[in-house]
Amino acid sequence: MSAVTICEVGPRDGLQNAHHFMPTETKKRWIAALAAAGLKEIEVGSFVPPKLIPAMADTAEIVSFCRTIPNLKVVALAPNLKGFQRALEAGAHKVTFPVSASRKHSESNVRMTPEQMVEEVRKCAQAPHPGVEIEGAVSTAFGCTMQGEVPEDDVVRIASALAGFCDGVALADTVGYGNPAQVKRIFSRVKGEIGAKLEGAHFHNTRGLGLANALAAYEVGVRSFDSSLGGLGGCPFAPGASGNVITEDLVFMFEAMGVKTGIDLDRLMAARRMMVEAIPQEPTYGHFALAGLPKGFRASA
Ligand SMILES: [Zn+2]
Hints:
Layout lengths: L4 E4 L1 H8 L6 H13 L4 E6 L12 H8 L6 E5 L3 H10 L3 E7 L2 H8 L3 H13 L6 E7 L12 H12 L4 E6 L6 H15 L3 E6 L6 H10 L4 E4 L19 H11 L7 H14 L9 H4 L10
Parallel strand pairs: 1-2, 1-8, 2-3, 3-4, 4-5, 5-6, 6-7, 7-8
Helix pairs in contact: 2-3, 2-11, 3-4, 7-8, 8-9
Bound molecules: zinc ion (ZN).
Zinc ion binds next to loops.
């Protein structure tokens, strides 16, 4: 079975939505431990205005530290051209731009329509960015807390527009509304339009369907997944809900299926312990962490 790439987004999506602050030096040690577990792609921060999200204020320092970790693709999020320029200065290898498919979410979040946001990303893609990958992530692609249903046609249209100038496109279930049937349907439709440009799946485990959605996406050809260690984070619109699909559980599922992840579960658990020690009051989730490996378990060869 063909291998998958897992991008750890805990340092960005997780810490951005966490209630407890992780100091910069601890963050560096944690990211180094994640890389040591075999994660080859880590979204380490976001170039949003520091006043808006104080937990991301050290992103430039974190990016330059992460560039010293061998064989790690350093990913950062940027919401606009200014953020993109900061990401380039800091030396990110890949920059992700979220474009909300929900009109209401987009207008309240970035005060732009989805179409205006696509144009903002186009401006970034047209600016010089030698060797830096650009990803367009269609957020709220499976539903929205403000708008409710997000028309699939809108998702397909935005993904197709982004594919015109981005290196890759991802679909994100930002608020955990998606279900496996919907995941298969929308990923297949978008793939039909943009082919190999469709790369990543970003699921939240808000209603416990994170793993099921990841498997559904895998079954329709997706090989690149975002997840966060311990399901760190949460959902700003659903207090008490868990964050992203849980890295340990996702790695365990794929390895048990014989799908290579390149990630060592023991070392991943060491990184989890480090995270829990750093922010002990922050809720963490996961079944693998509670149960451990089944007897006779063999990771994919
Ligand atoms: Zn997210």
